[in-house]
Amino acid sequence: MPSVCLVIGMAGCGKTSLMQRVNAYLHSREAPPYVINLDPAVTNLPYDANVDIRDTVNYKAVMKEYNLGPNGAILTAANLFATRFDQVVNLCERRAKEIDHIFVDTPGQIEIFTWSASGAIVSETFASAFPTCILYVMDTVRSQDPQCFMSNMLQAVSILYKFRLPMVLVFNKIDVVRHETQAEWMTDFEKFHAVLDENPTFASDLSRSMSLVLDEFYKHLRVAGVSAMTGEGMEGLFEQIERSRKEYLAEYLPELNAKKEENRVREETRRAEALEKLRRDAEDGGGGGGGGRGETVVMDMKRDVKREGSGGEEGEEGGEEDDEDA
Ligand SMILES: Nc1nc2c(ncn2[C@@H]2O[C@H](COP(=O)(O)OP(=O)(O)OP(=O)(O)O)[C@@H](O)[C@H]2O)c(=O)[nH]1
């Protein structure tokens, strides 16, 4: 089964460039991925997508038809596309034997994917069919600012706990700034606090408190440093994707199966209870003699049974006579 990687990140962090890079990298290894574009507003796609939302939904037409601004139209286009997403997964399933990776590019405005119906549908549909992970892409250059770093971490934590899928933190643009310092901030609070102390503000106090809370969250993350521009770090990224796949199979899949089983049991119990209620209603109605609906239904059923056995005669007496004849 191929691994699915959902590429998510703040605007301009380099998602589309990374998609292009991994696509080229895997083509050079003769293992081309299956590539999906979910950004309806992208004008130039620098890679060939196997599935492109723009072929199905015209976001400018959505803007006009629903009288929306650009972001509202992107959100609506993504939601409209999500209603057909089972068809996309069917396409992937048909190609599953030939491919090792499925990469999914998401809209530039992060919340359009992460906090909308489309994000939930896409991630859940994929996660119930294939090992799925999130590549949370960060702009390493912008994240040099500790508060921008913290804001990225808060986005990542909310996505991790919302989707509950394995996540790789991908520090992009390491051709400009190396990511090691920021990776260290995740393990050594004193270093992070020292940088915050250089410019004390209310916001830096908040970042300091948050960094202590996020300790537990950092333990669930894998880190990879890459440059979508030069191609550096691709091997490391694919190692982390492989580890995420193992985590999915070891932890997520059993949880998913348990959830499915729980839903099946709940549905069976609900059905049995509904049937029991129906039976009790029928009994109450039949025994009460009040001429309620239950009684009428039961009486009608009795007559029908007799009629079947009697070869067409109606009523109790006719039925009994027929029985004697037989
Ligand atoms: N130096 C450098 N620049 C990069 C790298 N990756 C992306 N960029 C540049 O960053 C800018 C944004 O890249 P995109 O790939 O469009 O980013 P995106 O996240 O897809 O953008 P939206 O979907 O519009 O939010 C472009 O100018 C890229 O050339 C990188 O690894 N190194």
Q: What features would you describe in this structure?
A:
It is built from 14 helices and 7 strands. The protein has helices at residues 15-28, 59-65, 70-82, 85-95, 110-114, 117-127, 146-163, 180-185, 189-197, 202-213, 215-218, 234-288, 293-310, 316-325, and strands spanning 3-9, 34-37, 51-52, 101-105, 132-139, 167-172, 221-225. Strands 3-2-4-1-5-6-7 form a 7-stranded parallel sheet, sandwiched between helices. Helix 12 packs across helix 13 (293-310). The longest helix has 55 residues, at 234-288. Bound molecules: guanosine-5'-triphosphate. The site of guanosine-5'-triphosphate (GTP) has 17 residues, from helix 1.
Notable features of this structure?
single chain; disordered C terminus; alpha/beta; 14 helices; 7 strands; Rossmann fold; binds guanosine-5'-triphosphate; 2 domains; globular; 59% helix; seven-stranded parallel β-sheet
Taken together, the total number of domains comes to 2
Structural class: alpha/beta
CATH architecture type of the largest domain: 3-Layer(aba) Sandwich
The gyration radius over C-alpha positions equals: 29 Å
Percentage of residues in helical conformation: 55-70%
CATH topology of the largest domain: Rossmann fold
Low-pLDDT sequence parts: 287-326
Question: Number of helical runs?
Answer: 14
How many beta-strand segments? 7
Form type? globular
Strand order of the largest sheet: 3-2-4-1-5-6-7
Q: What multimeric state do the chains show?
A: single chain
Q: What's the helix-strand series?
A: EHEEHHHEHHEHEHHHHEHHH
Can you tell me the CATH class of the largest domain?
Alpha Beta
Question: Which band does the percent of strand residues land in?
Answer: 5-15%
